[in-house]
Amino acid sequence: MFVTKLNLELASKLLNDLKSQGFEISKPQYTIFSAKKKGLNCTLYESGKLMVQGKETPQFMEFYLEPEILGTFDYSYADLQLDTSGRIGIDEAGKGDFFGPLCIAGVYAEGDAISELKSAGVRDSKNMTEKNIFKLAKEIRKRCEVTVVRMNPLKYNELYGKFKNLNHLLAWGHATAIENLVSKTGCKNVIIDQFAAEQVVIGALKKKKLEVNLTQRHRGEEDLVVAAASILAREAFVTELDKLSKQWEMTLPKGASRQVVKAGVDFLRRFGKEKLSGVAKSHFKTYQDVIEESI
């Protein structure tokens, strides 16, 4: 599937061209037109969104849509623009979840491995099902050097008590993952999803006497290697949360919603306050909500 934004001044030319190519034209709601023929569906929405899908998409893109309409070749020759330079990507999962660990993953990839990550479908884990996350995590491990820093709730709460600040705890975890992969690979080029002021992570690296070329980027998961790290971090978080649920024979939900508060109250009443710190992050406001509602 291919999706892009089209200048609507080109809509008439596109429509006429598709008619001449034998497409069947219809006009579903909110579209300017939808054009179909065997193996291909091309829909232009009133917003200017153009969506092309079907098994014939590659040929349609390369020989018509890109040269005649778009004037770019981002789809057909995407690999020519793909950054395959060796680098380390870091991302985390579990930061906003009351139950379960904080997991920070790192991935090192270069050259063909990066192209293979793209071909495998690696992208930001927030846009993926858990089934696909687990499937892709296996592929990432086959192709890349990886590391995962897992902070189970007891360890997390201990470290939070030391750092007194979530961003500094995250920075320590990121620096630890970076340290692990620099040691394994010798690579000094690092990209992370920026979560705090730049100096926070830089300071954590200095404490470990690590000198790297660090890029901190908002929406860092747009980088393929950071996206791979996001998948491993999410896989680790889900795996550890499932283990805790099985250990305590109750479902510990993700997030920090009302459902989570109810589960926390249930856990507290069944197992006590001391045990709650072994499954949950005690500095969350949710923790106080659970305590108050359990009385």
UniProtKB/TrEMBL annotation:
A divalent metal cation binds at D91, E92, D193. Its main location: cytoplasm. InterPro entries: RNase_HII/HIII, RNase_HII/HIII_dom, RNase_HIII, RNase_HIII_N, RNaseH-like_sf, RNaseH_sf, TBP_dom_sf. GO terms for cellular component: cytoplasm; ribonuclease H2 complex. Its cofactor is Mg(2+); Mn(2+). It is found in: Cytoplasm. Manganese or magnesium. Binds 1 divalent metal ion per monomer in the absence of substrate. May bind a second metal ion after substrate binding. It comes from the Bacteria. One of its GO terms (molecular function) is magnesium ion binding. It catalyses: Endonucleolytic cleavage to 5'-phosphomonoester. Its EC number is 3.1.26.4. Keywords: Cytoplasm, Endonuclease, Hydrolase, Magnesium, Metal-binding, Nuclease. Endonuclease that specifically degrades the RNA of RNA-DNA hybrids. Belongs to the RNase HII family. RnhC subfamily. This is Ribonuclease HIII. It comes from Waddlia chondrophila 2032/99. The lineage of its organism: Bacteria, Pseudomonadati, Chlamydiota, Chlamydiia, Parachlamydiales. The gene is rnhC.
